[in-house]
Amino acid sequence: MFQPTGPHLSLPTASSVIDAVRDPTSVVFNLDGYQVLAACDLPLGGRRVSAVANSVEAACPDCGVVSTRVHQRTRQKVKDLGVGGKDIELVIIKPRFLCAEAACARRTFTQVTDQLPFRARCTARLKAAAVEAVLDEGMPIWRTCARYQLGWATINTAVTADALTIPAPDMVPVRALGIDEHRFARAKWFKHPETAQWCRVEPWMSTFVDADTGHILGVVDGRSSANITRWLKQRSQAWLEQLQVVAIDPSSAFRNAVRQVLPAVEISVDHWHVVRLGNQMLTEVRQRVTREVLGRRGRKEDSVWAHRMLLLRAGDRLTDAGLHRLEQVFDDEDYEQVAAAWAVKERLRALLAARDIPAVQNARIDFEMAVAAADMAETDKLAATVAKWWTEIKVFVRTQVTNARTESANTGIKQIKRTGRGFRNQKNYQSRILGTSVRQTRRRRRIPHQQGLHAQR
DNA sequence: AGCACGCACCCTTCAGCGAA
DNA sequence: TTCGCTGAAGGGTGCGTGCT
């Protein structure tokens, strides 16, 4: 292993001493803890490498007594990464030690190393490369098998094992928690075994994310209050107490669950979902008014329908041309209700853009005035929703904690789902999600650190 | 829009085989 | 002889595509 330390920088470490005595072939082959004894080209293009572990002693797995007495040496063929674009046939000369403790029931035991653990038939670095391809590159296991000449089950087990090394959520310090739902498969129908009735099953999953970093802390089945509370109750008291804000979608189930387990924590409602409710309201008004005016659904020759995307776009980010087109739509007396609904939507956006409590309270007065002027069932319903979530909206304005990171995590999850063409084993699905996320978070943290180093130079 | 089809991938099962 | 790692085989599933 390359150590960026040298005598001129610091005192030589144990590993740098070993590096210094390694022969050139072992340095190039670079299998941690092993030295190359021989290497040759094979007639069909591969290469055969024989290697032996550096360590000449080992502790008995039963009694722990260290032994140097070799009972026999076996040649074990193991799989390994290719070197220099060539496949490698790796042969390990593996010693079998005699236990030095006379009282120990075990007579002999074989050598175990980091690269070749108990019973292993491929090196740890080969498995690590396959796991990296799956979790970092998003490569399907199926194709990873072909690249590394491993079986599907071998790689899948390695990926699952890797997910087990992820720090438990209780070990991750979290200030702001994001909870979000997503459907991970199409709705399914099944016949109830007793009543023989057809039941619709929506395969929902809920994701728990560190809202600051986007690191996925957990994934649970379903999106009901009970599923959320169960996960929260599994956390330690200390972990729950460090939470300051929880960001959720406007869902009563989520709010109830958080209130139940964390009565003291502040809840922030995700502004993106609130804006979406405003856009939904505007679309409902547009569709209703079009039906009333034209007696049919909108078509591309109707200006309101043609500019439906323009209506939904943020008003303050419209181009002059876009604003002009919108004004032409609103000039039509038949569509003044659409214009009123648009004004309500824009007031809602302004309300969410406020940066402090006095500003958001003023913005709410403008919003309520627009709602009163519009005087429609759709806008009244939106105003009722805003009233219902007013406390949570104020928390969002004050803390600016959102579910944006959760949403991006969900995009990643959907990508995994698409690659997978349908996971049936939830355990595999979860280990892929958590494994991918934890690696992404590690990369994100590393990049600013490295940029900082460059800046110092 | 609805449907059929095939691809790409997941996942289980099972047997071979080498290590213990 | 037993254990368990490993790979092959084949069934199952979701999605994209192209046709009607």
Automatic annotation (TrEMBL):
InterPro entries found in the cross-reference section: Transpos_ISL3, Transposase_DDE, Transposase_Znf
The ranges of region (Disordered) come to 434-457
Stretches assigned to the Transposase IS204/IS1001/IS1096/IS1165 zinc-finger domain: 58-101
Pfam families attached to this UniProt entry: DDE_Tnp_ISL3, Zn_ribbon_ISL3
The segment(s) forming the Transposase IS204/IS1001/IS1096/IS1165 DDE domain are 177-433
What is the protein's name according to its record? Transposase
User: What are the top taxonomic ranks of the organism?
Assistant: Bacteria, Pseudomonadati, Pseudomonadota, Alphaproteobacteria, Rhodobacterales
